[in-house]
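A favour, since you know our structure tokens better than I do. It will help me judge whether the discrete encoding reads sensibly. The space below this message is yours for that.
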Amino acid sequence: MNKKLVSMALAATMIVGAGLSVSAEGAKTVGILMPTQSSERWINDGANMKSQLEEKGYNVELQYAEDDTAMQVSQLENYVGKGVDCLVIAAIDSGVLVNAEAQAKEAGIPIIAYDRLLMDTDAVSYYATFDNKGVGTVIANYIKEAKDLDAAREAGESYTIEFFMGSPDDNNALFLYNGIMEVLQEYLDDGTLVCKSGRTSFEDTCILRWSQETAQSNCENILTANYADEELDIACTAFDGFAYGVKAALEGAGYTAENWPLVTGQDAEVMATKNIIAGSQTMSIYKDTRLLAEKAVTMVDAVLQGTEPEINDTEQYNNGVITVPTYMCTPVAVDQSNYKEILIDGGYYTEDQLQ
């Protein structure tokens, strides 16, 4: 049996096992589709949404597709066939979901896009996300301030930098890249930042499916080809998983605490936060999945009750067919100086989790 058939068989087994029947008499059912359990943040997102929706009296079915697009299509089609009342979708590759989304619209099932915009469809009602361009801007401004790029420019100094950007099939990745370049492009143009590999475009730096292994391989190749006689100063990565891959590549190349570069990330995962404490990752972007889940839940309530949820953007997120009303949460940079205040005092992690 080929991989696709195995995946679809597994998806069917998961659907049967999930038990989509309504468990509480009269309660509406919300079907949630998440991309993968390989990243800690998606596990947290799914759990937070499920918990908050159940507290409001909804029945909730939560599925993960493990980055298998055929599986996610099958899961969506099964939800539509079972007649769930609302769908929340964090897509792996939204392009493959268009036909199934059309089936949902025809069946009268509203769809909320969760943290990844659903492209090329008019079946989506709302979009809950973080300010993805803002994520890139925060990362870039952190680099700008940490390395004092303006002072370096005046002194005629420069820093080497390499980029590890998100998946080309994730619309958020391009927003993030654009936010980074909005801040850093001028320093690349005037030579304050030097990318020795020459890989600065989104096409040259994007990493399919946000793969940690690919990030590590890319970094190893870049270090071997370009940094035999000069050190890398900044690894601008768009995801904590990339930062783990870069860390492994740097260690393999003999980097130590004395010459360790500035390494960025996104999601403030437990491992990333531990690495920040230890000094092998400089910063990450904290995205409170509890808040994002809360905004998605208000959208579910709205579409099922015929009311309007809170929205703070009606212009930025055009999916090629419609401009989707959106709530954008604010990203926050965390590093050694503030992780206790933001992550521990804020109740996101306990001290024990970060030991």
